[in-house]
């Protein structure tokens, strides 16, 4: 990734980390009007950054989170003693004569800070596999897939616009948002040869469709009563869970 693309991903990650805090803080200080203003500004900034990544830098399917969290175990440096053992050429494993089981050699036991379970070969293979997965380039998107990803990126803005036009109690914003999400996933489903991260992202978006059962007005009219009834039944008839469900 180029340096400008990394900066865009960093700013996008910062916005996703602080958006809830900014919304709550603005609502406390400036009230409901300030709350909706900061929501629109943050979603507009996120959409612009994502469209730049999609259309200008050809970043492919947008991931969540934009920057992969650091794997500290994978990035952990070796202890100086371990580096000396590796450089001296000591055998790290011992193969049993009768069982053919691979175990760690006592002479090459690493320090407590860098010790792990499993043979060194397994760890090296897993690290190389993860590094290969992380370094895979994004899958090129055609016109159909680019439109689908653009729908997913701009869906929050269209949802906010529909809320301003029809109000929060109307079904139209809920239906519009659901149609855009389902259409985006349907258009992206034809894309083949996705890497592991992209397949995981599409699975995450599919699972998030269940959140529509908990969004107003569907939740207010249908889900709330059934969920509360289920919680009351669990509290009354299932021992040990009443404290949590109440």
From TrEMBL:
**Keywords for this protein:** Peroxisome, Peroxisome biogenesis
Q: What is its main location?
A: membrane
Any one GO biological process: peroxisome organization
* Polar residues bias spans: 106-116
Q: Record's GO cellular component, any one?
A: peroxisomal membrane
Places the protein is found: Peroxisome membrane
Region ranges (Disordered): 74-140
Q: Where is the signal peptide?
A: none
User: What ranges does the record list as Basic and acidic residues composition bias?
Assistant: 122-133
Listed InterPro entries? Pex16
Q: Which Pfam families match?
A: Pex16
Keyword Lipid metabolism on entry: no
Q: What family is this protein classified in?
A: Belongs to the peroxin-16 family.
Protein known as: Peroxisomal membrane protein PEX16
Q: Could you tell me which species this protein originates from?
A: Herpetotheres cachinnans
Gene name linked to the record: Pex16
């Amino acid at each position: 990734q180029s340096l400008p693309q990394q900066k865009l991903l960093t700013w996008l990650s910062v916005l996703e980390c602080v958006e809830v805090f900014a919304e709550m803080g603005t609502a406390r200080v400036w009230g409901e009007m300030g709350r909706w203003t900061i929501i629109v500004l943050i979603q507009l900034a996120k959409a612009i950054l994502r469209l730049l990544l999609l259309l200008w830098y050809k970043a492919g399917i947008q991931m969540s989170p934009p920057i992969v969290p650091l794997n500290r175990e994978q990035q952990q440096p070796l202890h100086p003693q371990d580096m000396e053992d590796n450089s001296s050429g000591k055998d790290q494993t011992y193969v049993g004569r009768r069982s053919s089981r691979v175990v760690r050699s006592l002479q090459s036991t690493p320090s407590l800070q860098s010790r792990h379970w499993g043979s060194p070969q397994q760890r090296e293979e897993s690290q190389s596999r993860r590094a290969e997965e992380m370094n895979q380039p994004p899958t090129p998107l055609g016109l159909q897939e680019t439109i689908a990803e653009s729908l997913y990126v701009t869906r929050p803005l269209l949802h906010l616009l529909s809320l301003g036009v029809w109000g929060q109690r109307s079904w139209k914003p809920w239906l519009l948002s659901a149609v855009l999400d389902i259409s985006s996933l349907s258009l992206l489903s034809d894309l083949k040869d996705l890497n592991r991260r992209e397949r995981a992202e599409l699975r995450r978006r599919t699972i998030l469709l269940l959140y529509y059962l908990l969004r107003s007005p569907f939740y207010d009219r249908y889900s709330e009563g059934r969920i509360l009834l289920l919680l009351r039944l669990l509290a009354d008839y299932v021992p040990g869970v009443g404290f949590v469900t109440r």
